[in-house]
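Chain A, query sequence.
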Amino acid sequence: MTSTQSAAQTHFDFTGRRALVTGAGKGIGRKIVALLAGCGAAVVALSRDAGDLESLSAETGCEVIVADLADAEAARQAAGEAGPVDLLVNNAGISILQSFLDTTPEAFDRTQAVNVRAAMIVGQVVARGLIERGAAGAIVNVSSQSSSVGLPSHAAYCASKGALDQLTRVMAIELGPHGIRVNAVNPTVTLTPMGAMAWSDPARSAPMLARIPLGRFAQPRDVAQAVAYLLSDAAGMVNGVMLPVDGGFLSN
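Chain A, predicted structure.
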């Protein structure tokens, strides 16, 4: 870690705050858990992969919950099991690549269930808890640049992220009066281990990189630090924002 990255991370202080991160086992979610824990938060990590959570807990000291958020009742129970939460990151997401003409109802429904419905259900549980306690809080939904641009073979995914942005706006409007801020981050291609593998072919990556003025894809830490900012008191007047983490992709 460079001194610049360290300084960016230590800027945030979540001491005394309890955070729930969904989709925490791998990639962006795993980096978010590590960053929030490193900034003093008591973190609850939620994933469907028990092995990923075991290693994450050993690395960060986080609490863990195993659940498949495609199941609505499992999502509701898991959110309740997390206990009183001050900060929520709805990061869980899936992408099933099919062309529009080949997109199946099953793939479409599962994508919406994980990427949108789970964020709604977990958000409802956390927000109700905050309101009952009379406490302020913050929620960040991890969306995507694909909420604003179409990508081939991403019909279900693009639709889900567009819906997640709209859900974020409604949450911000309705929960703001209770002192609960709700925002989204919208990353470009992010080089998680899976992302690095998927975009390793220059023939595929070059056209996308050409649209990013900064000339690179995002790293998981880029997204995690944006999430931490939106959760922090530094963003105390930021509500209902879709924050691109895309190096300028959407400016083209």
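The first helix runs from residue 3 to 10. Residues 3-192+220-242 form a domain with the Rossmann fold fold (CATH 3.40.50.720).
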